[in-house]
Structures are given as structure tokens and as C-alpha cells.
Amino acid sequence: MAELPSGEEVAAMGQGTWHMGENRSSREEEIRALQVGLDLGLTLIDTAEMYAQGEAERLTGEAITGRRDEVFLVTKVLPHHATLEGTVAACEQSLRRLGTDRIDLYLLHWRGRVPLEETLSAFDRLTASGRVRHWGVSNFDAGDMADLVALAGGQAVQADQILYNLCRRGCEFDLAPWCHDRGIPIMAYSPVEQGRLLGHPAIRGVAERHDATPAQVALAWTLRDDGVIAIPKASNASHVQENHAALEIRLAEEDLLVLDTAFPPPRAGRPLEML
Which conformational region is residue 52 in: left (phi greater than 0), alpha (psi within -120 to 50 degrees), or beta? Predict the structure, then answer.
């Protein structure tokens, strides 16, 4: 489990939905995958108004029908919608697509031109009304986070969702320590780099020692420390089960050294990467 600054505990491994809902022929299989994940305890589901132009939210809503109280539901507002009125309107549309009366964690998808103060005012309005329980951000670097918490009400941020995996470790230089010191979890999207990591010999070697798959090792590495929530996407039930099994893997110091050698941690600050 991972803990939010509010004290609420959420699943350390959740389920992502980026690229879900794009193909009608795979819709039922994707819904079933999310439901199998819920059965296994992967109760945090992450989606966004942007994904498949709202279809990922509709698919998620169908998957959680009758099970809403089991789910910690995360979705996002696009930066060009993030004005005071635009955020409220976008939230209401997401709620309709999701078929629910509340969002557990509502994220600003990335920082845009709308002043953060205005978006925070919208988040305050939504939390006061009960439509949103918590709010956070996505794709914010250390400087963005410092700007955010310097604003009135900015200290209520509950998470920063970023691209984080073995080959995207830049956040470890400044952002991750900054968040850790304040108890703000990092939510890692694309923790297996959309599959591109899986053929690397170092990962495959560690996987063989653990009788595991490379994907499971990449996920176990992402979850090696407290304060990180991983949200891999799985489009079928067997893939969900494979991801879930990564929770049982404990990487040894030898494994971590091998992976650090192959994917060195940053020695200087670098711009936050995005996909």
C-alpha cells in the first residue's frame, strides 16, 4: 500500500488505461482486464479525459459498475480546460462518462498557460462540493512543484504522476527526493516503457534469477521504495495477472546493482521527460 499526504492508503500498484477504448473490438477484453485487476486488489484505476477522447473514461465506468466503492478512481483535466469554469465543466463531463458522483483523485494533466491559482480555485470548488475528494498534478517537475506549494492551498497536493521507469530516472536527482521529504507519492506511468525495456539483457538476467518475466522485474524495481505508485496498463486478464505477481518479487542488492549499472541513476538535474 501507499499513503497519500491526507493519510489515506491506496494500492501501490494500480491499473492504467492509456490507449484503452481506442478499438471497439477489444473493448470487452479491456473491461474484463480491469475487473480482474479489481479482483486481485489492484483497486486504483487511472484514466483521463484525453485518453481516446473520453472513451477510456466510459470504458472504466462500465468496468466499475456495481463496484464503485472498491475503486480509488483517478482522472485528469487537460491544461487548456483548467480555468475556473473549464475545470468544473471538464470534471462534470468526466463524472458523466465514468458513471459516478465523485472522483477520488483529480489531476491537472500537465502545466499549461492557465495560472495555477485559477486551477486551484476550481479544485477547491470541486472538493467543497464533494465531486472531487483529493487533487494532484501530473508531469510537474521540481520547480513546478515548488511553485505549486508556494500558493495558497497548494500544500494540499496529493500526488505527482510522472513518467518513471528504469530508463527514465531523471526525477531521482531532485523531484523524487523533494516529494519524498513531503510525503507526496510519485505515480509512475509507463513503468515498463510501453514494453521497450523488456528485451534488455540486464533485465532479462535478473528475471531469470527470480523465475520471473522482465516486465515483473521492471515493475518490482519501480516499487522497490515506499512513496511510488505504479500504474501499468494491461489489456487482457493474463497480463493483469502477470503484473500483479510482480508484487511478490523482492529484488536483492545484487539485482539492484546490476540494474543501476545498466541504467545509471542521474548525476545532474535534467528536464522531466514525458510520453
Answer: left
**What is the CA 173 to chain-centroid distance, rounded?**
20
pTM of the entire predicted model: 0.97
Three-state DSSP state, 124: helix
Amino acid at 131: R
In the structure grid, which three cell numbers stand for residue 226, read together?
Answer: 515506499
The residues assigned a catalytic role are: 51
For residue 115, report the phi and psi dihedrals to the nearest 5 degrees.
-55, 140
N-terminal to C-terminal alpha carbon distance within the chain = 26
Q: Which of 33, 18, 177 is nearest to 109 (CA)?
A: 18
Judge contact between 46 and 247, C-beta under 8 A: no
User: Mapping DSSP to helix (H, G, I), strand (E, B) and coil, where does residue 213 land?
Assistant: coil
CB 132 within 8 A of CB 156: no
Tens of pLDDT along 203-240? 999 999 999 999 999 999 999 989 999 999 999 999 99
Write out pLDDT tens, residues 63-111.
Answer: 999 999 999 999 999 999 999 999 999 999 999 999 999 999 999 999 9
